[in-house]
Structure formats: C-alpha cells, structure tokens
Q: What sequence folds into this?
C-alpha cells in the first residue's frame, strides 16, 4: 500500500488516529530505519577513518554479528532508548574527531560497550555462547537493554568487570576477572499492564549526566506508589481516547522516574535524540500525570515527523522569541513543539469535558482548557509572523488551527478575566526582562530603501549586484544578537582580499545616510576596511539611529571610535554595552532631541556620556 505524506494527509497527524493508522506506523518505522542507517554510517566512517580502532575494540565484529539476529530482535533492542543514547554519544565523539585525535580515550571504551546490545539480542533470540564483557554500575546493577531484566551483584559491588556468556534458557554464565563463576540476582523491571516499563534500574537511561536530572532510585514501596498512579493515569487516557492510548504504546517504551526540585512542581521531559524515553516526577494529582503523558508523547510524535520534513524552512534558529509557556526566550523550533503538544492537551481536555462522566475538578479543567487555547493563539501568532513553512508544515499548522477553533471553553467571565490578566502579566514580565527582543525587534526590518529615492535605490541594487548578494538579505540577527554572523562583512572581507573595493567605493560615493540599514552597513564596513574610520563611524551611527537596541551596531561604532583615538569613549561603550541596549528607547528619544546636530558621531558620543554618567 502506498502512503503519501503531503499537505492533505498530514492533517490527519494532528488528532490521534491510532496505532493502526498507516501514516502513524510509517513515521515511527522511518524513525527506526533512521537509527539503522546511522549505525551503518557510523561503522563505515570508523572503517574508513580509524580501522585500527574498530579492530582493537572489536566493534566491526559486533556490528556484523547484529545482522545474524532476527528482525524482531534487532527492532526490539535497537529501538530501545538506551541504544539511541549510545548511538548519539558515539556520533558526538566522532563529530569531535575523537576517533582520530584521541583513539585511546573515551571513544575506545564507548565502542567496547557496544557488545552489550549484541548480548541483549542474543538473549531475545535465545542464542547461546554469545560472549561480552560488562561493568556493574554504582549500585552493582547490570541492566540487559530491552529485555525487561536486570542483574545485581550479590555484594552490590560497583564497577566490576564481568564476563557474560548466553545460554539457551534466557540466562547467563557470569564470570569474574579471575574466571570464577558468579551467581547474580536476576530481577524483572516493573511494567504497567499495557507493557510500558517503569525503569529506575537501568543507569544507561540516566543519560550520562548530559542533563540536569535527579533520578529516583525505586524501592518496593515507591514502585507500588508509582505503578498505582500510572495505571490510574492510563485508565483516564484509554477511557477518553483509545486511539491516543494505542499510539502512545508505539511511541513510548520507558518511563524513568526523577525527583522534582519542589513538591508542588511536576517535571517531565523527552529528548529528540532518544525516542521512546520519557522522564517524569511523581505527583499525587493524577490529572497532572495524565497531561504529562499526553504532552510528552506528542513531542515524540512530532520529532518522528521532523526526521522526514523540517516543517520550518525559514526563520531564525536563535532563542529570541516569546513563548507563553516559558519565562526564557525560545527558538522557533521550541515554539512549534509547544504548539503541537499543547494543542493535543487542549483537544484531550476538551474531550474529557464533553463526556458524561462526572469530574471532581471540572472547574479546574475548564480553566486549563481556556488557558491552553489562549496560549496557543499567542504562540501561533509568534510562529506565523516569524517563520516560513514547508508544504507539510503549512498543512500541519492549518490543521492545528482548525483543531483549536473547534474548542469553545465553557468558563465564567470572571475566570476568563483572571486568566487573561495572568497571561498578560506573563508577557509583560518577559518583555521587561528582554527589552531588546520585544516584538518591534523580532519582526522583519526594513532593509531596502524608499523606492521613490531613485538614486539610492540604484546604489543599493548596484552594490548588492557587485557583491553578489540580494537586497532582501535578512539582517534581523544583526539587530538582536551580541555576536552575530555578519554576511555583509564576511563578503566584503573576501572581496577586499580578492580584488579590492575601489569599484564598490565608486558605486557608494553618493550614498545618503539613513535611507537603508543595509546600505549604511555596506558603506560603514567598506569605509572601515579602507581605514576611513570617520566615515565608518558616521554610517555605523546611522545604523544605531535605526536600531539602538542592537549590541552589534554599538560594537561596530565603538571600534571605529577606537581607531579615531577616542579611547575613553570606546571604553565607555564597551563597559556599558548592556546598559545602552537596555535603554534603547531613551537613546531614540535623545537622538530625536538632537536631530539637527551637524556632527552625528560627536552627538552620539555625548549621548552615551549622558546615559551612563
């Protein structure tokens, strides 16, 4: 059967369609195939760039042995979250060229740990005489990835090197370094009735300290508490959306318990590089756990889609945008993730409210649904204003908007007003903390000049053509980043060293200040490269008049001042750069007051002295 992922079929991806839906199945299958491809590519890269390393670590032999196991065994173990983490770490090391520069260090030991997944596949297929060496963790535990079992040293000895040999009855012969037989205690990892594991025993799922997480070590008492809450949460999900429940069973394999930093704050998280893993803290309120499961599963679902389509094809990747769910600035990809998962939470909450089942906290759920819809509308405005989408992305966003529009929360006017005030205060607090990232600075800026000014329009077009750039180049990152990549300067430096800037100077000589930030920047950089620092300062000052919130323009201006031997003024800007950016509105006001100044550079220097003294 042929399955098309296009602008129409993607709309079925927004609401739950169930585990049997062809598109849902294909997207998660493609994610697994991507894992296989990354493993194969890792082997090829190591073979070509460091063959001695993979022979000494026996990685190549283990890789070849994987092919001998059944497809079910391969899928079971290589889809397991700890293998995804192992593979991601391997690629991080290779991308840092550790296999070439430091072959005897971390990457050697990492590759030597790969056979543990071979051991797990042999256990699944019940194949005997597969041998590997494993180390106990800090608690004397060795978890056999993806098999649902873990072994514990009888004396709980940490970091002991042991030799494992598989048998035909799904058990092992285990030997110490002295070749003495060791009987380890075998335990089963707790599972929910639906098959998802509650895994507080596999240290590989603690993600190597990469994230700031305080993992919970399960006891018999806490395990009962966890399973009770999770089974109740699962009953809610399965009762209100069997389609969603069946999807979650595809996308989530392991729930890993963590501690929250506060008793009244719940924590949950997923990771794009580790599909199938969900960490969460315990909460007595079942509805919180329900929302976390719905929320985090949809991160996995969207991440699986993002392996096939980027969704966002244009827009800054910097963390500079307002999110109604966060106190910190977020990248557009984070806004997209928030929109996708919270529209799912909105739909699920609305579905609960529409049933006839009595709810103990119906008013609270109504407030939650209303809040989610308001936040979604705000986030969609930010995303659509600042991003361009692929065709698949367009279909996805349209379907999300339709989903949101179908929800009409039933809530009192008083509750609406209270929630509206709280959401407005959140945005105002964010704007106060990020004055250089407020809406006027993250929307598209004017980079081309007034078309009525034919002289300057001709200059801009001619200079851009000569440099081989487009007049519509996106300069937004230069207006909010402290150390942005400046494509104009990079191009000018390359041309300067290649053939000089004399022809460009002739094109620019009649330029009028202040008609285009792009033209001002080209003129300022050209003058600076040609050591005409007075003219450079004048054009950089013009950039600042248009964007006094831009730390980068302040830096350009102060370096021109340094070359003009205005060292005190250079240092004054350097020391007070953050203060000048934060007071950009006051800078604009002072500029307007002194708009008739003949010497704009001197005027800007005095303005700085006024602001910081």
A:
């Amino acid at each position: 059967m042929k399955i098309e992922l296009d602008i129409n079929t993607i709309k079925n991806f927004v609401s739950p369609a169930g585990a049997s839906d062809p598109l849902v199945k294909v997207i998660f299958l493609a994610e697994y195939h991507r894992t296989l491809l990354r493993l194969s590519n890792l082997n090829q890269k190591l073979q070509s760039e460091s063959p001695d390393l993979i022979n000494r670590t026996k990685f190549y032999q283990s890789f070849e042995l994987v092919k001998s196991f059944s497809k079910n065994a391969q899928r079971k173990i290589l889809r397991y979250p700890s293998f995804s983490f192992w593979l991601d770490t391997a690629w991080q090391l290779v991308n840092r060229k550790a296999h070439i520069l430091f072959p005897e260090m971390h990457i050697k030991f990492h590759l030597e740990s790969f056979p543990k997944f071979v051991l797990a596949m042999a256990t699944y297929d019940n194949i005997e005489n597969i041998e590997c060496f494993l180390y106990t963790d800090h608690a004397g535990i060795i978890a056999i990835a993806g098999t649902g079992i873990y072994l514990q040293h009888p004396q709980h000895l940490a970091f002991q090197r042991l030799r494992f040999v598989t048998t035909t009855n799904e058990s092992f012969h285990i030997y110490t370094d002295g070749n003495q037989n060791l009987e380890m205690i075998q335990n089963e990892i707790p599972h929910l009735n639906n098959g998802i594991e509650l895994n507080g025993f596999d240290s590989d799922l603690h993600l190597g300290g990469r994230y700031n997480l305080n993992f919970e070590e399960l006891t018999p008492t806490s395990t009962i508490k966890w399973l009770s809450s999770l089974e109740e949460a699962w009953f809610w999900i399965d009762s209100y959306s069997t389609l969603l429940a069946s999807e979650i069973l595809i996308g989530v394999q392991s729930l890993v318990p963590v501690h929250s930093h506060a008793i009244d704050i719940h924590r949950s998280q997923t990771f794009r590089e580790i599909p199938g893993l969900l960490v969460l803290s315990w909460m007595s309120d079942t509805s919180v756990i329900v929302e976390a499961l719905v929320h985090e599963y949809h991160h996995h679902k969207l991440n699986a889609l993002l392996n096939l389509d980027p969704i966002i094809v244009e827009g800054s990747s910097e963390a500079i945008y307002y999110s109604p769910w966060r106190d910190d600035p977020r990248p557009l990809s984070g806004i997209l993730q928030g929109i996708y998962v919270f529209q799912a939470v909105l739909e699920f909450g609305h579905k609960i409210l529409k049933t006839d089942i009595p709810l103990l906290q119906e008013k609270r759920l109504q407030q939650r649904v209303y809040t989610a819809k308001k936040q979604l509308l705000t986030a969609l405005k930010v995303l659509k204003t600042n991003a361009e989408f692929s065709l698949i992305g367009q279909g996805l966003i349209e379907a999300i908007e339709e989903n949101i529009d179908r929800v009409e929360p039933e809530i009192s006017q008083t509750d609406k007003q209270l929630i509206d005030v709280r959401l407005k205060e959140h945005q105002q607090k964010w704007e106060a903390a990020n004055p250089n990232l407020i809406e006027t600075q993250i929307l598209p800026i004017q980079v081309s000049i007034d078309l009525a000014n034919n002289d300057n329009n001709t200059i801009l077009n001619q200079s851009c053509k000569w440099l081989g750039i487009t007049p519509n180049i996106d300069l937004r990152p230069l207006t909010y980043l402290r150390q942005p990549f400046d494509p104009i300067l990079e191009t000018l430096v390359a041309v300067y060293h290649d053939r000089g800037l004399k022809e460009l100077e002739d094109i620019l000589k009649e330029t009028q200040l202040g008609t285009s930030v792009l033209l001002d920047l080209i003129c300022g950089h050209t003058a600076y490269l040609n050591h005409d620092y007075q003219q450079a300062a004048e054009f950089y000052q013009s950039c600042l008049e248009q964007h006094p919130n831009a730390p980068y323009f302040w830096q350009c201006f102060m370096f021109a001042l340094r070359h003009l031997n205005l060292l005190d003024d250079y240092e004054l800007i350097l020391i007070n750069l953050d203060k000048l950016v934060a007071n950009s509105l006051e800078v604009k006001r002072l500029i307007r007051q002194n708009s008739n100044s003949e010497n704009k550079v001197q005027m800007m220097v005095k303005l700085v002295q006024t602001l910081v003294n």
